[in-house]
Amino acid sequence: QVQLVESGGGLVQPGGSLRLSCAASGNIFSINTMGWYRQAPGKQRELVAAITNAGSTNYADSVKGRFTISRDNAKNTVYLQMNSLKPEDTAVYYCNLDITYATPRLYWGQGTQVTVSS
């Protein structure tokens, strides 16, 4: 069994910064791609950023240059540094990890609210 625990969301003013974390624990042999998704009210969940186990990254166009995804393999943790936040970044953010134990499987975090408002 695998558990994902997210942290770091909150309320921030436009132009501010937040850092999200997602730590995995449990039956883990390896973690392949780690990603962050978000879902705003009335909208579909969308990919924000992803990082492979080789360190290659991919970002949504809307966050390029403002958000940075990183990972600490020793801690089974993925981070999302969010700078220059805008009101349109307001959403529930979910981590998504491709974890292999016996077989690969995708796991979702519980979600953390990010609200950008003055």
Structure description:
The protein is an all-beta fold and 118 residues long. It has no helices and 11 strands. It has strands spanning 2-7, 10-12, 18-26, 30-39, 46-51, 57-59, 67-72, 77-82, 91-100, 104-108, 112-116. Strands 2, 4, 5, 6, 9, 10 and 11 form a 7-stranded mixed β-sheet that branches. A hairpin with a 3-residue loop joins strand 9 and strand 10. The termini are far apart.
Largest sheet: 7 strands, mixed
Gyration radius from CA atoms, angstroms: 14 Å
Query: Gap between N and C termini, in Å?
Result: 41 Å
Query: Which shape, going by the Cα principal axes?
Result: globular
Q: Unreliable segments (pLDDT under 50, ≥5 consecutive)?
A: none
Secondary structure class reads mainly beta
Note the run of SSEs as H and E. Answer: EEEEEEEEEEE
Q: Bin the strand percentage.
A: over 45%
Number of helices: 0
Overall average residue pLDDT = 96
Number of E-state strands? 11
- Percent range for helical residues? under 10%
Concise synopsis of the structure shown:
The chain has 118 residues and is mainly beta. The chain has no helices and 11 strands.
How would you describe this structure in keywords?
single chain, 118 residues, mainly beta, seven-stranded mixed sheet, four-stranded antiparallel sheet, 11 strands, globular
Question: Could you outline the blueprint of secondary structure elements for this entry?
Answer:
Blueprint: E1 2-7, E2 10-12, E3 18-26, E4 30-39, E5 46-51, E6 57-59, E7 67-72, E8 77-82, E9 91-100, E10 104-108, E11 112-116
Parallel strand pairs: 2-11
Antiparallel strand pairs: 1-3, 3-8, 4-5, 4-9, 5-6, 7-8, 9-10, 9-11
